[in-house]
Amino acid sequence: xxxxxxxxxxxxxxxxxxxxxxxxxxxxxxxxxxxxxxxxxxxxxxxxxxxxxxxxxxxxxxxxxxxx
Length: 68
Ligand code: FES
Description:
The protein contains one helix and five strands. It has one helix spanning 55-58; strands at 5-8, 14-17, 20-23, 29-32, 37-40. It has a single domain (5-58), classed as Ribosomal Protein L9, domain 1 (3-Layer(aba) Sandwich).
């Protein structure tokens, strides 16, 4: 079983469960503690990228949400 689970939300963000580190182009990092989750933007409209701020609801984002 993987330590990190990524869930594609219906017409919404990717929800990431489990401990992980996200690093930007400058080397700054965001670390998520074990037992918590965060959502990453898939629509491109968030004002807080790479995190979702629910802007996908306002822009009526639609996307394939199945893992193939
Ligand atoms: S997916 Fe939620 S703001 Fe982009």
